[in-house]
Amino acid sequence: MSLEALILLVLRISIVLSVFALGLGARFADTLYLFRRPDKLARAFFSMNVLMPLLALLLVFKFDLHPAVKIALVALSVSPVPPIFPKSALEEGGKENYTIGLLVATSVLAIAVIPLAMVIFEKIGGTTMSMRATSVAAIVFAMVLVPLLLGMGARKTVWAKPAAKHVGAAASLLLVLGVLPVLLVESRTIFSLIGNGTLLSLAAFAVAGLIAGYWLGGPEPANRRVLSLATASRHPGLSVAIAQANFPQQKMAVPAVCLYLIISVFLALLLRRFRAQAGADAAGASGRAAA
Fold it and tell me: What is this structure's pTM?
């Protein structure tokens, strides 16, 4: 087995374990949460699958970006949330039902959304594009639905609660072990893409996602934070699959997706730190007023 194949296997195992650990603490009702609430589902869909593709097209046609960056933006704009998204969302104070419901809903809808989006992009851009629903479904079932359902099936066993913590920790460790070699090997290629407005465009895409999700998240602050993070966070595996299916000759598309992930994670961490500081300042001011 080659080093590249080994790294890919480690990443896949990490994702499957992460979703399985999530399932150990989830309820079946959580998976259907958004499907039973059409208003919340519509808000999430509009934020992730309407506004962001429109923004991606605007950036692609209005700015002289590297072709790989253009491909990455289009692919990212129609991809669902990544399987490891719930962990970050729950740490942000997100509700479990909305967070898990969003993971499942965006993953299932992607089976229809991505092929349809490819048809629309082809008509607008004049470039032949396609992504079979079966290809999307294979990724969604293998990386999200099956491990989630297996975890939920084992939820009521006596070992489920202690196992969830250990499985989650193992998943995080494997993720680090898988991602670091990729970043080290591809670092020079990733940073070669910087220039001609690339950083500004990718940052604008991420910030727009954070704002759009928060704006459309509804009246509950927790849901606003979750949808904000979800709209800016996209499934790297599906994004790469879309890029490779339509532009196999463009080898820089994968580094471009990696560059966006770095930027979006950095901005999300900055936002999280800002919220924590704002909360601490508000608590301090409240305490002084009470005294």
Answer: 0.88
